[in-house]
Amino acid sequence: MNYTPENPIIVQGDKSVLLEVDNPHYPAARDMLARFAELEKSPEYIHTYRITPLSLWNAAATGLNAATIIEGLERYSKYPLPQNVRIDIADYVSRYGRVKLLKENGSLVLKTDDPATLIELSRQKALQRYIVAQLDDHTLQVDPARRGHIKQALVNIGYPAEDLAGYVDGEHLPFQLRPITLDGKPFALRHYQKEAGDVFYADGSARGGSGTIVLPCGAGKTIVGIAVMHALQCNTLILTPNTVSVRQWIDELLDKTTLTAEQIGEYTGQKKEIKPVTISTYQTMTYRKRRKKGENGDIPEAERFPHFELFDKRDWGLIIYDEVHLLPAPVFSITAELQARRRLGLTATLVREDGREEDVFSLIGPKKYDVPWKDLERQGWIATADVVEIRVPLSPEYRLQYVTAPPRQKYRVAAENPEKYAVLDELLAKHPDDQILIIGMYLDQLQTVADRYGYPLITGKTPVKQRREIYRQFKEGVFKRIIISKVGNFAVDLPNANVMIQISGMFGSRQEEAQRLGRILRPKQEGTTLAHFYTIVSKDTQDQEFGANRQLFLTEQGYQYTILYADEVSAFQPRTVELEVC
User: Fold this and answer.
1) Which of 61, 82, 236, 456 could form a disulfide with 318 if both were Cys (CB 3.0 to 4.6 A apart)?
2) Burial level of 291, CB count in 10 A (0-12/13-18/19+)?
3) What is the mean pLDDT of residues 352-371?
Protein backbone atom coordinates (compact mmCIF):
# COMPACT_ATOMS: atom_id res chain seq x y z
CA MET A 1 0.00 0.00 0.00
CA ASN A 2 1.36 3.43 -1.00
CA TYR A 3 1.33 5.38 2.28
CA THR A 4 2.56 8.94 1.83
CA PRO A 5 2.81 12.09 3.97
CA GLU A 6 0.67 13.84 1.34
CA ASN A 7 -2.33 11.74 2.37
CA PRO A 8 -4.85 13.43 4.70
CA ILE A 9 -5.56 10.91 7.51
CA ILE A 10 -3.82 9.26 10.46
CA VAL A 11 -5.46 6.15 11.91
CA GLN A 12 -4.60 5.57 15.58
CA GLY A 13 -4.68 2.45 17.70
CA ASP A 14 -7.66 3.64 19.75
CA LYS A 15 -9.69 3.70 16.50
CA SER A 16 -9.70 7.47 16.32
CA VAL A 17 -8.94 8.95 12.91
CA LEU A 18 -7.37 12.38 12.38
CA LEU A 19 -8.31 14.11 9.12
CA GLU A 20 -6.30 17.04 7.77
CA VAL A 21 -8.71 19.67 6.42
CA ASP A 22 -6.23 21.72 4.37
CA ASN A 23 -5.46 18.84 2.02
CA PRO A 24 -6.53 18.30 -1.60
CA HIS A 25 -7.80 14.80 -0.74
CA TYR A 26 -9.89 16.05 2.21
CA PRO A 27 -13.35 15.90 0.50
CA ALA A 28 -12.85 12.33 -0.77
CA ALA A 29 -11.45 11.13 2.56
CA ARG A 30 -14.28 12.83 4.47
CA ASP A 31 -16.92 11.13 2.31
CA MET A 32 -15.17 7.79 2.80
CA LEU A 33 -15.06 8.16 6.60
CA ALA A 34 -18.67 9.33 6.87
CA ARG A 35 -19.85 5.87 5.78
CA PHE A 36 -18.51 4.07 8.87
CA ALA A 37 -17.11 6.55 11.43
CA GLU A 38 -18.49 9.31 13.64
CA LEU A 39 -17.12 12.85 13.72
CA GLU A 40 -16.18 13.85 17.29
CA LYS A 41 -14.37 17.19 16.87
CA SER A 42 -14.09 19.65 14.00
CA PRO A 43 -11.72 22.53 14.75
CA GLU A 44 -10.30 24.48 11.81
CA TYR A 45 -7.40 22.25 10.76
CA ILE A 46 -7.71 18.69 12.09
CA HIS A 47 -11.00 16.80 12.41
CA THR A 48 -11.26 13.77 14.71
CA TYR A 49 -13.41 10.76 13.80
CA ARG A 50 -14.12 7.66 15.89
CA ILE A 51 -14.73 4.14 14.54
CA THR A 52 -17.24 2.47 16.90
CA PRO A 53 -18.99 -0.91 16.93
CA LEU A 54 -22.33 0.76 16.18
CA SER A 55 -20.93 2.83 13.30
CA LEU A 56 -19.49 -0.37 11.79
CA TRP A 57 -22.72 -2.34 12.30
CA ASN A 58 -24.74 0.36 10.57
CA ALA A 59 -22.22 0.32 7.73
CA ALA A 60 -22.48 -3.46 7.51
CA ALA A 61 -26.28 -3.22 7.38
CA THR A 62 -26.00 -1.04 4.25
CA GLY A 63 -23.79 -3.67 2.58
CA LEU A 64 -20.34 -2.24 3.36
CA ASN A 65 -17.77 -4.95 4.15
CA ALA A 66 -14.58 -4.89 6.20
CA ALA A 67 -12.29 -5.17 3.19
CA THR A 68 -13.80 -2.04 1.62
CA ILE A 69 -13.52 -0.11 4.89
CA ILE A 70 -9.87 -1.09 5.39
CA GLU A 71 -9.02 -0.35 1.76
CA GLY A 72 -10.50 3.15 2.09
CA LEU A 73 -8.49 3.87 5.23
CA GLU A 74 -5.29 2.61 3.59
CA ARG A 75 -5.87 4.68 0.44
CA TYR A 76 -5.88 7.97 2.36
CA SER A 77 -3.60 7.17 5.31
CA LYS A 78 -0.22 8.80 5.90
CA TYR A 79 1.05 5.77 7.83
CA PRO A 80 0.31 2.03 8.01
CA LEU A 81 -2.89 1.07 9.83
CA PRO A 82 -2.33 -0.31 13.34
CA GLN A 83 -2.84 -4.07 13.24
CA ASN A 84 -5.38 -4.01 16.09
CA VAL A 85 -7.57 -1.60 14.07
CA ARG A 86 -7.63 -3.99 11.10
CA ILE A 87 -8.55 -6.89 13.38
CA ASP A 88 -11.25 -4.94 15.25
CA ILE A 89 -12.88 -3.67 12.04
CA ALA A 90 -13.01 -7.19 10.61
CA ASP A 91 -14.34 -8.58 13.91
CA TYR A 92 -17.08 -5.99 14.47
CA VAL A 93 -18.30 -6.05 10.88
CA SER A 94 -18.43 -9.86 10.95
CA ARG A 95 -20.53 -9.78 14.13
CA TYR A 96 -23.47 -8.14 12.34
CA GLY A 97 -25.70 -11.01 11.28
CA ARG A 98 -23.51 -13.72 12.84
CA VAL A 99 -26.62 -14.55 14.84
CA LYS A 100 -30.06 -14.52 13.26
CA LEU A 101 -33.60 -14.41 14.62
CA LEU A 102 -35.80 -16.82 12.66
CA LYS A 103 -39.18 -18.52 12.83
CA GLU A 104 -38.94 -22.31 12.81
CA ASN A 105 -41.88 -24.65 13.39
CA GLY A 106 -43.90 -21.81 14.84
CA SER A 107 -41.19 -20.86 17.36
CA LEU A 108 -38.82 -17.90 17.54
CA VAL A 109 -35.22 -19.09 17.46
CA LEU A 110 -31.79 -17.53 17.67
CA LYS A 111 -29.43 -19.27 15.28
CA THR A 112 -25.70 -19.14 14.52
CA ASP A 113 -23.32 -21.24 12.44
CA ASP A 114 -20.71 -21.02 15.20
CA PRO A 115 -21.32 -23.30 18.23
CA ALA A 116 -18.80 -21.30 20.33
CA THR A 117 -20.83 -18.13 19.76
CA LEU A 118 -23.96 -19.96 20.89
CA ILE A 119 -22.26 -21.08 24.09
CA GLU A 120 -21.04 -17.54 24.73
CA LEU A 121 -24.53 -16.10 24.22
CA SER A 122 -26.27 -18.72 26.35
CA ARG A 123 -24.08 -17.73 29.31
CA GLN A 124 -24.90 -14.03 29.10
CA LYS A 125 -27.16 -12.95 31.96
CA ALA A 126 -28.77 -10.25 29.82
CA LEU A 127 -30.01 -12.93 27.40
CA GLN A 128 -30.65 -15.88 29.72
CA ARG A 129 -34.04 -14.57 30.87
CA TYR A 130 -35.36 -14.81 27.29
CA ILE A 131 -34.06 -18.33 26.49
CA VAL A 132 -36.72 -21.06 26.46
CA ALA A 133 -34.49 -23.98 25.48
CA GLN A 134 -31.33 -24.94 23.61
CA LEU A 135 -32.45 -27.02 20.64
CA ASP A 136 -28.99 -27.98 19.28
CA ASP A 137 -25.42 -26.68 18.98
CA HIS A 138 -26.58 -23.88 16.66
CA THR A 139 -30.04 -22.95 17.94
CA LEU A 140 -31.67 -21.35 20.97
CA GLN A 141 -35.43 -21.19 21.29
CA VAL A 142 -36.34 -17.76 22.70
CA ASP A 143 -39.45 -16.00 24.00
CA PRO A 144 -41.45 -14.75 20.97
CA ALA A 145 -43.09 -11.99 23.03
CA ARG A 146 -39.68 -10.46 23.81
CA ARG A 147 -38.29 -10.16 20.29
CA GLY A 148 -37.34 -6.49 20.72
CA HIS A 149 -35.78 -7.00 24.14
CA ILE A 150 -33.73 -9.89 22.78
CA LYS A 151 -32.35 -7.66 20.02
CA GLN A 152 -31.51 -4.93 22.54
CA ALA A 153 -29.69 -7.46 24.71
CA LEU A 154 -27.73 -8.82 21.74
CA VAL A 155 -26.59 -5.32 20.73
CA ASN A 156 -25.41 -4.67 24.29
CA ILE A 157 -23.57 -8.00 24.33
CA GLY A 158 -21.89 -7.13 21.02
CA TYR A 159 -23.66 -9.52 18.63
CA PRO A 160 -26.34 -7.55 16.74
CA ALA A 161 -28.84 -10.00 15.31
CA GLU A 162 -30.18 -9.95 11.78
CA ASP A 163 -33.92 -10.22 12.29
CA LEU A 164 -35.38 -12.60 9.69
CA ALA A 165 -38.40 -13.73 11.73
CA GLY A 166 -40.81 -11.98 9.38
CA TYR A 167 -43.78 -9.69 9.87
CA VAL A 168 -47.56 -9.71 9.81
CA ASP A 169 -49.04 -8.42 6.55
CA GLY A 170 -51.56 -6.10 8.17
CA GLU A 171 -54.99 -5.31 6.79
CA HIS A 172 -54.92 -4.79 3.01
CA LEU A 173 -55.19 -1.22 1.71
CA PRO A 174 -55.04 -0.89 -2.08
CA PHE A 175 -54.08 2.49 -3.58
CA GLN A 176 -51.96 3.94 -6.37
CA LEU A 177 -49.47 6.76 -6.80
CA ARG A 178 -50.75 9.61 -8.93
CA PRO A 179 -48.74 10.42 -12.08
CA ILE A 180 -50.24 13.93 -11.86
CA THR A 181 -50.76 15.52 -8.45
CA LEU A 182 -53.99 17.23 -7.44
CA ASP A 183 -52.12 20.49 -8.11
CA GLY A 184 -51.70 19.38 -11.71
CA LYS A 185 -47.93 18.78 -11.49
CA PRO A 186 -46.17 15.66 -12.82
CA PHE A 187 -45.14 13.30 -10.02
CA ALA A 188 -42.63 10.46 -10.05
CA LEU A 189 -40.22 9.09 -7.49
CA ARG A 190 -36.68 10.44 -7.75
CA HIS A 191 -34.09 7.72 -8.31
CA TYR A 192 -32.78 7.79 -4.73
CA GLN A 193 -36.31 7.80 -3.28
CA LYS A 194 -37.12 4.68 -5.29
CA GLU A 195 -33.83 3.04 -4.26
CA ALA A 196 -34.48 3.79 -0.58
CA GLY A 197 -38.01 2.39 -0.77
CA ASP A 198 -36.83 -0.72 -2.64
CA VAL A 199 -34.04 -1.40 -0.13
CA PHE A 200 -36.48 -1.21 2.77
CA TYR A 201 -39.17 -3.30 1.02
CA ALA A 202 -36.67 -5.95 -0.21
CA ASP A 203 -39.35 -7.51 -2.43
CA GLY A 204 -41.48 -8.16 0.65
CA SER A 205 -38.97 -10.62 2.14
CA ALA A 206 -37.96 -10.92 5.78
CA ARG A 207 -34.65 -9.22 4.89
CA GLY A 208 -36.59 -5.98 4.53
CA GLY A 209 -39.32 -4.53 6.66
CA SER A 210 -37.35 -2.83 9.44
CA GLY A 211 -34.74 -0.14 9.33
CA THR A 212 -33.94 3.51 8.98
CA ILE A 213 -33.64 5.62 5.85
CA VAL A 214 -31.26 8.57 6.24
CA LEU A 215 -31.77 11.44 3.80
CA PRO A 216 -31.07 15.17 4.02
CA CYS A 217 -33.84 17.54 5.04
CA GLY A 218 -35.57 18.68 1.88
CA ALA A 219 -34.78 15.46 -0.01
CA GLY A 220 -38.31 14.07 0.33
CA LYS A 221 -38.28 11.57 3.20
CA THR A 222 -42.09 11.74 3.26
CA ILE A 223 -42.12 10.56 -0.36
CA VAL A 224 -39.95 7.57 0.61
CA GLY A 225 -42.52 6.73 3.29
CA ILE A 226 -45.30 6.95 0.70
CA ALA A 227 -43.29 4.73 -1.67
CA VAL A 228 -42.96 2.06 1.05
CA MET A 229 -46.68 2.32 1.85
CA HIS A 230 -47.45 1.82 -1.84
CA ALA A 231 -45.21 -1.24 -2.03
CA LEU A 232 -46.84 -2.84 1.03
CA GLN A 233 -50.49 -1.81 0.40
CA CYS A 234 -51.47 -2.17 4.06
CA ASN A 235 -52.92 -0.26 6.99
CA THR A 236 -50.26 2.16 8.23
CA LEU A 237 -49.67 4.09 11.45
CA ILE A 238 -47.46 7.18 11.08
CA LEU A 239 -45.89 8.92 14.10
CA THR A 240 -44.59 12.47 13.67
CA PRO A 241 -43.03 15.26 15.78
CA ASN A 242 -45.97 17.68 15.80
CA THR A 243 -49.46 18.47 14.53
CA VAL A 244 -48.17 20.62 11.65
CA SER A 245 -46.27 17.56 10.44
CA VAL A 246 -49.45 15.46 10.72
CA ARG A 247 -51.28 17.88 8.44
CA GLN A 248 -48.39 17.93 5.96
CA TRP A 249 -48.42 14.12 5.74
CA ILE A 250 -52.17 14.25 5.09
CA ASP A 251 -51.69 16.89 2.39
CA GLU A 252 -48.94 14.85 0.68
CA LEU A 253 -50.92 11.60 0.80
CA LEU A 254 -54.01 13.23 -0.72
CA ASP A 255 -51.95 15.10 -3.32
CA LYS A 256 -49.79 12.21 -4.51
CA THR A 257 -51.85 9.04 -3.97
CA THR A 258 -55.36 7.84 -4.67
CA LEU A 259 -56.07 7.54 -0.94
CA THR A 260 -59.17 9.53 0.02
CA ALA A 261 -59.85 11.78 3.01
CA GLU A 262 -62.13 9.03 4.37
CA GLN A 263 -59.15 6.64 4.51
CA ILE A 264 -56.76 9.00 6.34
CA GLY A 265 -57.22 9.79 10.03
CA GLU A 266 -55.66 12.37 12.33
CA TYR A 267 -55.06 11.27 15.92
CA THR A 268 -53.92 14.35 17.83
CA GLY A 269 -55.03 16.61 20.64
CA GLN A 270 -57.59 18.13 18.26
CA LYS A 271 -58.98 14.96 16.67
CA LYS A 272 -59.11 11.26 17.51
CA GLU A 273 -59.75 9.54 14.16
CA ILE A 274 -58.63 5.95 13.55
CA LYS A 275 -58.65 5.02 9.87
CA PRO A 276 -56.66 2.72 7.52
CA VAL A 277 -53.89 5.35 7.48
CA THR A 278 -53.67 7.11 10.85
CA ILE A 279 -51.19 9.87 11.65
CA SER A 280 -50.37 10.86 15.21
CA THR A 281 -47.66 12.71 17.15
CA TYR A 282 -45.08 11.54 19.66
CA GLN A 283 -46.52 14.08 22.07
CA THR A 284 -50.01 12.56 21.81
CA MET A 285 -48.69 9.02 22.22
CA THR A 286 -46.72 9.94 25.35
CA TYR A 287 -49.51 11.87 27.04
CA ARG A 288 -49.67 10.71 30.66
CA LYS A 289 -52.69 10.59 32.88
CA ARG A 290 -52.07 12.57 36.03
CA ARG A 291 -52.16 10.61 39.25
CA LYS A 292 -55.26 11.44 41.26
CA LYS A 293 -54.79 12.91 44.68
CA GLY A 294 -54.31 10.17 47.26
CA GLU A 295 -53.39 7.46 44.68
CA ASN A 296 -50.40 5.27 45.55
CA GLY A 297 -48.43 2.58 43.76
CA ASP A 298 -47.35 2.17 40.15
CA ILE A 299 -49.81 2.95 37.39
CA PRO A 300 -49.93 0.19 34.72
CA GLU A 301 -48.33 1.33 31.46
CA ALA A 302 -51.65 1.02 29.57
CA GLU A 303 -53.18 3.47 32.03
CA ARG A 304 -50.12 5.73 32.28
CA PHE A 305 -50.07 6.17 28.48
CA PRO A 306 -53.73 5.80 27.47
CA HIS A 307 -53.09 6.52 23.78
CA PHE A 308 -50.78 3.51 23.44
CA GLU A 309 -53.99 1.61 22.70
CA LEU A 310 -53.76 3.15 19.22
CA PHE A 311 -51.09 0.55 18.39
CA ASP A 312 -53.70 -2.19 18.80
CA LYS A 313 -56.74 -0.41 17.33
CA ARG A 314 -56.18 -1.73 13.80
CA ASP A 315 -54.22 -4.47 12.11
CA TRP A 316 -51.29 -2.26 11.14
CA GLY A 317 -48.87 -3.73 8.62
CA LEU A 318 -46.46 -0.78 8.81
CA ILE A 319 -45.46 1.81 11.40
CA ILE A 320 -43.55 4.86 10.16
CA TYR A 321 -41.47 6.85 12.66
CA ASP A 322 -40.91 10.29 11.12
CA GLU A 323 -37.83 12.10 12.50
CA VAL A 324 -36.95 8.86 14.27
CA HIS A 325 -33.99 10.47 16.04
CA LEU A 326 -36.59 12.25 18.23
CA LEU A 327 -38.25 9.04 19.40
CA PRO A 328 -39.18 9.48 23.11
CA ALA A 329 -38.33 6.77 25.64
CA PRO A 330 -41.93 5.56 26.18
CA VAL A 331 -42.35 4.96 22.43
CA PHE A 332 -39.10 2.97 22.43
CA SER A 333 -40.68 0.88 25.19
CA ILE A 334 -43.88 0.11 23.26
CA THR A 335 -41.88 -0.46 20.05
CA ALA A 336 -39.99 -3.27 21.76
CA GLU A 337 -43.35 -5.09 21.85
CA LEU A 338 -44.20 -4.37 18.19
CA GLN A 339 -41.47 -6.31 16.41
CA ALA A 340 -43.93 -8.33 14.30
CA ARG A 341 -44.97 -5.16 12.47
CA ARG A 342 -42.82 -3.58 9.79
CA ARG A 343 -41.08 -0.44 11.08
CA LEU A 344 -39.65 2.37 8.97
CA GLY A 345 -37.57 5.15 10.53
CA LEU A 346 -37.05 8.37 8.59
CA THR A 347 -34.40 10.91 9.60
CA ALA A 348 -31.70 13.27 8.39
CA THR A 349 -29.31 12.13 11.13
CA LEU A 350 -29.07 9.14 13.43
CA VAL A 351 -27.38 11.34 16.04
CA ARG A 352 -29.25 11.41 19.36
CA GLU A 353 -28.07 13.68 22.13
CA ASP A 354 -29.21 11.09 24.74
CA GLY A 355 -26.97 8.40 23.26
CA ARG A 356 -29.81 6.00 22.42
CA GLU A 357 -28.66 5.35 18.84
CA GLU A 358 -28.31 1.66 19.75
CA ASP A 359 -32.02 1.49 20.60
CA VAL A 360 -32.93 2.94 17.20
CA PHE A 361 -30.67 0.26 15.67
CA SER A 362 -32.17 -2.65 17.60
CA LEU A 363 -35.86 -1.66 17.87
CA ILE A 364 -36.57 0.26 14.65
CA GLY A 365 -33.83 -1.37 12.63
CA PRO A 366 -30.37 -0.63 11.27
CA LYS A 367 -29.56 2.04 8.74
CA LYS A 368 -30.66 0.66 5.37
CA TYR A 369 -30.01 3.62 3.09
CA ASP A 370 -27.95 6.78 3.36
CA VAL A 371 -27.06 9.44 0.80
CA PRO A 372 -24.45 12.12 1.61
CA TRP A 373 -25.96 15.60 1.56
CA LYS A 374 -23.33 16.85 -0.87
CA ASP A 375 -24.19 14.12 -3.40
CA LEU A 376 -27.79 15.32 -3.61
CA GLU A 377 -26.60 18.92 -3.69
CA ARG A 378 -24.36 18.15 -6.69
CA GLN A 379 -27.30 16.50 -8.43
CA GLY A 380 -29.48 19.56 -7.80
CA TRP A 381 -32.03 17.84 -5.55
CA ILE A 382 -31.25 20.10 -2.60
CA ALA A 383 -29.94 23.65 -2.52
CA THR A 384 -26.28 24.59 -2.12
CA ALA A 385 -25.75 26.16 1.28
CA ASP A 386 -23.32 28.91 2.26
CA VAL A 387 -22.77 28.46 6.00
CA VAL A 388 -21.43 31.31 8.17
CA GLU A 389 -20.82 31.63 11.91
CA ILE A 390 -20.60 35.17 13.29
CA ARG A 391 -18.93 35.69 16.67
CA VAL A 392 -20.20 38.69 18.61
CA PRO A 393 -18.48 40.10 21.71
CA LEU A 394 -20.21 40.72 25.03
CA SER A 395 -20.27 44.31 26.25
CA PRO A 396 -18.21 44.85 29.44
CA GLU A 397 -21.42 45.16 31.51
CA TYR A 398 -22.94 42.03 29.96
CA ARG A 399 -19.64 40.12 30.34
CA LEU A 400 -19.86 40.77 34.09
CA GLN A 401 -23.42 39.41 34.08
CA TYR A 402 -22.20 36.31 32.20
CA VAL A 403 -19.24 35.51 34.47
CA THR A 404 -21.32 35.93 37.64
CA ALA A 405 -24.29 33.89 36.38
CA PRO A 406 -24.93 30.47 38.00
CA PRO A 407 -23.53 27.60 35.88
CA ARG A 408 -26.99 26.52 34.71
CA GLN A 409 -27.78 30.06 33.52
CA LYS A 410 -24.52 30.90 31.75
CA TYR A 411 -25.54 29.57 28.35
CA ARG A 412 -28.82 31.45 28.31
CA VAL A 413 -27.12 34.71 29.29
CA ALA A 414 -24.62 34.26 26.44
CA ALA A 415 -27.27 33.18 23.92
CA GLU A 416 -29.42 36.26 24.64
CA ASN A 417 -26.52 38.70 24.18
CA PRO A 418 -28.13 42.03 23.07
CA GLU A 419 -25.15 42.74 20.79
CA LYS A 420 -26.56 40.11 18.41
CA TYR A 421 -29.33 42.46 17.28
CA ALA A 422 -26.93 44.86 15.53
CA VAL A 423 -25.49 41.93 13.54
CA LEU A 424 -29.03 40.79 12.76
CA ASP A 425 -29.77 44.28 11.39
CA GLU A 426 -26.78 44.04 9.06
CA LEU A 427 -27.63 40.55 7.81
CA LEU A 428 -31.23 41.48 7.05
CA ALA A 429 -29.99 44.51 5.09
CA LYS A 430 -27.76 42.24 2.98
CA HIS A 431 -30.75 40.08 1.93
CA PRO A 432 -33.48 42.63 1.08
CA ASP A 433 -35.27 40.41 -1.45
CA ASP A 434 -34.81 36.98 0.13
CA GLN A 435 -37.27 34.82 2.07
CA ILE A 436 -35.81 34.75 5.59
CA LEU A 437 -36.43 32.60 8.67
CA ILE A 438 -35.13 33.98 11.98
CA ILE A 439 -34.98 31.11 14.46
CA GLY A 440 -34.08 30.81 18.12
CA MET A 441 -34.64 28.94 21.36
CA TYR A 442 -35.64 31.58 23.91
CA LEU A 443 -39.10 33.12 23.64
CA ASP A 444 -38.17 36.42 25.31
CA GLN A 445 -35.38 36.88 22.78
CA LEU A 446 -37.70 36.04 19.88
CA GLN A 447 -40.35 38.44 21.17
CA THR A 448 -37.72 41.20 21.31
CA VAL A 449 -36.90 40.50 17.64
CA ALA A 450 -40.61 40.55 16.76
CA ASP A 451 -41.05 43.89 18.52
CA ARG A 452 -37.94 45.27 16.80
CA TYR A 453 -39.07 44.43 13.25
CA GLY A 454 -42.79 43.67 13.39
CA TYR A 455 -42.41 40.28 11.68
CA PRO A 456 -44.88 37.44 12.44
CA LEU A 457 -43.76 35.20 15.33
CA ILE A 458 -44.54 31.48 15.60
CA THR A 459 -44.00 29.60 18.88
CA GLY A 460 -45.37 26.46 20.48
CA LYS A 461 -48.30 28.51 21.77
CA THR A 462 -49.33 29.65 18.29
CA PRO A 463 -52.52 27.74 17.32
CA VAL A 464 -51.99 25.26 14.48
CA LYS A 465 -54.51 27.05 12.27
CA GLN A 466 -52.68 30.35 12.72
CA ARG A 467 -49.29 28.70 12.08
CA ARG A 468 -50.53 27.21 8.83
CA GLU A 469 -51.92 30.57 7.75
CA ILE A 470 -48.58 32.31 8.42
CA TYR A 471 -46.73 29.55 6.56
CA ARG A 472 -49.16 29.92 3.63
CA GLN A 473 -48.63 33.68 3.47
CA PHE A 474 -44.86 33.19 3.66
CA LYS A 475 -45.00 30.71 0.77
CA GLU A 476 -47.06 33.18 -1.27
CA GLY A 477 -44.71 36.06 -0.52
CA VAL A 478 -47.13 38.07 1.61
CA PHE A 479 -44.49 37.86 4.34
CA LYS A 480 -40.84 37.69 3.33
CA ARG A 481 -39.56 37.27 6.88
CA ILE A 482 -40.91 35.30 9.81
CA ILE A 483 -39.60 34.55 13.30
CA ILE A 484 -39.90 31.02 14.60
CA SER A 485 -39.05 29.13 17.79
CA LYS A 486 -37.74 25.56 17.94
CA VAL A 487 -41.12 24.36 16.62
CA GLY A 488 -39.59 25.27 13.26
CA ASN A 489 -36.91 22.61 13.58
CA PHE A 490 -39.10 19.87 12.17
CA ALA A 491 -41.46 19.19 9.32
CA VAL A 492 -41.96 22.77 8.19
CA ASP A 493 -42.29 22.76 4.42
CA LEU A 494 -41.28 26.23 3.22
CA PRO A 495 -39.53 25.57 -0.10
CA ASN A 496 -39.08 29.26 -0.92
CA ALA A 497 -37.12 30.03 2.28
CA ASN A 498 -33.51 30.59 1.25
CA VAL A 499 -31.99 32.36 4.28
CA MET A 500 -31.97 31.26 7.91
CA ILE A 501 -30.51 33.35 10.73
CA GLN A 502 -30.05 31.36 13.95
CA ILE A 503 -29.79 33.60 17.01
CA SER A 504 -29.82 30.83 19.64
CA GLY A 505 -29.84 27.05 19.64
CA MET A 506 -30.60 24.10 21.88
CA PHE A 507 -27.25 23.89 23.70
CA GLY A 508 -24.93 21.68 21.60
CA SER A 509 -27.55 19.74 19.63
CA ARG A 510 -26.09 18.41 16.38
CA GLN A 511 -29.45 17.11 15.23
CA GLU A 512 -31.01 20.55 15.66
CA GLU A 513 -28.33 22.18 13.52
CA ALA A 514 -28.97 19.63 10.77
CA GLN A 515 -32.73 20.13 10.97
CA ARG A 516 -32.46 23.90 10.89
CA LEU A 517 -30.21 23.96 7.85
CA GLY A 518 -32.67 21.56 6.25
CA ARG A 519 -35.44 24.16 6.43
CA ILE A 520 -33.71 26.11 3.64
CA LEU A 521 -32.36 23.23 1.51
CA ARG A 522 -35.61 22.37 -0.23
CA PRO A 523 -35.54 22.92 -4.00
CA LYS A 524 -36.72 26.44 -4.69
CA GLN A 525 -39.79 27.24 -6.73
CA GLU A 526 -37.87 29.88 -8.65
CA GLY A 527 -35.12 27.40 -9.52
CA THR A 528 -32.50 29.06 -7.30
CA THR A 529 -29.97 26.61 -5.85
CA LEU A 530 -28.24 28.80 -3.26
CA ALA A 531 -29.22 29.10 0.41
CA HIS A 532 -27.61 31.01 3.29
CA PHE A 533 -27.36 29.74 6.87
CA TYR A 534 -26.10 32.17 9.51
CA THR A 535 -25.43 31.36 13.17
CA ILE A 536 -24.79 34.26 15.55
CA VAL A 537 -22.90 33.25 18.70
CA SER A 538 -21.37 35.16 21.60
CA LYS A 539 -17.59 35.11 21.39
CA ASP A 540 -15.58 33.24 24.05
CA THR A 541 -18.63 31.87 25.88
CA GLN A 542 -20.57 28.63 26.21
CA ASP A 543 -22.62 29.87 23.26
CA GLN A 544 -19.53 29.56 21.03
CA GLU A 545 -18.57 26.19 22.58
CA PHE A 546 -22.03 24.70 22.04
CA GLY A 547 -22.05 26.14 18.52
CA ALA A 548 -18.86 24.19 17.74
CA ASN A 549 -20.54 20.95 18.85
CA ARG A 550 -23.71 21.69 16.84
CA GLN A 551 -21.58 22.00 13.72
CA LEU A 552 -20.21 18.45 13.93
CA PHE A 553 -22.84 16.68 11.86
CA LEU A 554 -22.91 19.27 9.09
CA THR A 555 -19.11 19.33 8.94
CA GLU A 556 -19.21 15.55 8.52
CA GLN A 557 -21.58 16.06 5.59
CA GLY A 558 -19.14 18.42 3.88
CA TYR A 559 -20.29 21.86 4.98
CA GLN A 560 -17.52 24.27 5.93
CA TYR A 561 -18.32 27.13 8.27
CA THR A 562 -16.94 30.53 7.36
CA ILE A 563 -16.05 32.28 10.64
CA LEU A 564 -16.64 36.05 10.86
CA TYR A 565 -16.38 38.49 13.73
CA ALA A 566 -18.95 41.22 14.33
CA ASP A 567 -16.73 44.00 12.98
CA GLU A 568 -16.24 42.06 9.71
CA VAL A 569 -19.95 41.75 8.88
CA SER A 570 -20.35 45.18 7.29
CA ALA A 571 -17.70 44.35 4.64
CA PHE A 572 -18.98 40.80 4.14
CA GLN A 573 -20.71 40.03 0.85
CA PRO A 574 -22.96 36.94 0.72
CA ARG A 575 -22.23 34.48 -2.06
CA THR A 576 -24.31 35.04 -5.15
CA VAL A 577 -22.82 32.48 -7.56
CA GLU A 578 -25.19 29.55 -7.94
CA LEU A 579 -24.12 26.08 -8.90
CA GLU A 580 -25.52 24.67 -12.10
CA VAL A 581 -28.19 22.05 -11.46
CA CYS A 582 -27.12 18.62 -12.68
Assistant:
1) 236
2) exposed
3) 85
